[in-house]
Amino acid sequence: MRVADLIEKKRNGGELSRKEINYLIAGYTAGTVPDYQLAAFAMAVYFRGMSARETLALTLAMANSGDMVSLSGIPGTVVDKHSTGGVGDSTTLVLAPLVASAGVPVAKMSGRGLGHTGGTLDKLEAIPGFQGGLSVDEMIRSLQRTGVAVVGQTERLVPADRKLYALRDLTATVESLPLIAASIMSKKLAAGADALVLDVKTGDGAFMKEPAAAFTLAEAMVEIGCGAGRETVAVLTSMEQPLGRAVGNALEIEEAIATLKGRGPADLTELCLLLGGWMLFLAGRVSQPEEGRSILQERITGGAAADKFKEMIREQRGDPAVVDHPDLLPQAAATVPVEAAEKGYVHRLRAEPVGRAAMILGAGREAAGAAIDFAAGVTLQKKVGDPVEPGETLAMLHLNCSPESGEAMEAGRLLRGAYEIGSSPVKKPPLILGHVDRAGRHHI
Ligand code: URA
């Protein structure tokens, strides 16, 4: 087999076999196929796309490029949840303990934040002492003891994706649907869960700006998951405005705790109950997702969900006292209000600049590996549909830098620009757009 022939075949719109794709990915991982050939291949895929068969073969080849975690020792159906990334998205922080409190094991490998979106691992590490960097054996022991583990992806998982993603980033080939689907799903398959609920976000703060593209990505990922023998459902949700009211690591932990105790923002609570209902359904715990939702609601009201979060934190060496005393979380030195200039209604609150404002204050990182400030971020007092009066607080900056610093000024400017105030009342926009299961698309 010659790599140049495989590139040519894809360039001309042909379909590669599983053997050919395995050859390319195994060679690339081992370093015998150079970057320039994989870059040419990625560009050919960008223009020609891939069939469902090719996308599944690529995903499996990538998943098999490193360790494949086996969770066969954990009784029951282990579920995982993945979000394609958003602003203020603290659903995993709520869902992992919530679903585990209903007796369904949850194993999740999470990433760190980059750019305007945050990462679950950074958020959890805002809890004093919390260790996200567990080995696979430690993760399995945590799962056996508490039914839940949220850990960082180990170095030995999916090395092909790490290499290929960095290459795509430098060769303008990130925005290719089969490459995105294979990248996400290879990590999920290697992480070992039996079933998977995907939260595919669309809108200003999301990877997929348009719902139609998000539905197509969701279909591709569900097809891969089911094709690989893992029951998979994708829920399509709006990321036009940030989810919940908190954007920032410790701030989102505090919001997740409130949600686990039944006092969270309505949109975050709604999304967690919906995704959690699907997780219970895929685990075979209930016969309808709606039934799962009522079980989870009861776990929140009865206190089991918050207790499970304490257990999960203690197991991962964090201080569980934060659940009853959120003031033990890192606190910013100052808060600065961003005020409305005019009377009206919030017509729009763009997620991307809100995420950028939080990042500039130190809550996120522009480059991989940079340090972050756990206490920094933004809280949103007003969201789409809310009435505002001149001088009323729209949002609050939480900062450790000086309120007169360039960073604070820039964050304030971004936040003011994120809000669009109009004179007429507007309805709250829908959060849930539909779902995709093995039977196909279901729009709401
Ligand atoms: N997230 C991933 O993990 N991979 C992609 O290609 C895009 C988003």
Structure description:
This protein has a five-stranded mixed beta sheet with strand order 1-4-5-13-14, sandwiched between helices. With 444 residues, it is of the alpha+beta class. The protein is 45% helix and 16% strand. The protein starts with a helix and ends with a strand. A hairpin with a 2-residue loop joins β13 and β14. The protein has helices at 3-11, 18-30, 35-48, 52-63, 91-101, 120-124, 136-146, 159-170, 177-191, 211-227, 249-260, 266-282, 289-302, 304-315, 351-363, 406-418; strands spanning 79-83, 106-110, 148-152, 195-202, 231-238, 246-247, 334-339, 344-349, 377-380, 387-388, 393-399, 419-422, 432-437, 440-443. The protein has 16 helices and 14 strands. The model has no long low-confidence stretch (mean pLDDT 96). α12 (266-282) crosses α13 (289-302). The structure holds uracil (URA). Uracil binds at residues 165, 174, 179-180, 183-184, 207.
Bound molecules: uracil
Structural class: alpha+beta
Strand content: 15-25%
Mean pLDDT: 96
In short:
The chain is an alpha+beta fold and 444 residues long. The protein is built from 16 helices and 14 strands. It has helices at 3-11, 18-30, 35-48, 52-63, 91-101, 120-124, 136-146, 159-170, 177-191, 211-227, 249-260, 266-282, 289-302, 304-315, 351-363, 406-418, and strands at residues 79-83, 106-110, 148-152, 195-202, 231-238, 246-247, 334-339, 344-349, 377-380, 387-388, 393-399, 419-422, 432-437, 440-443.
Descriptive tags:
444 residues, alpha+beta, 5-stranded mixed beta sheet, 14 strands, 45% helix, globular, binds uracil
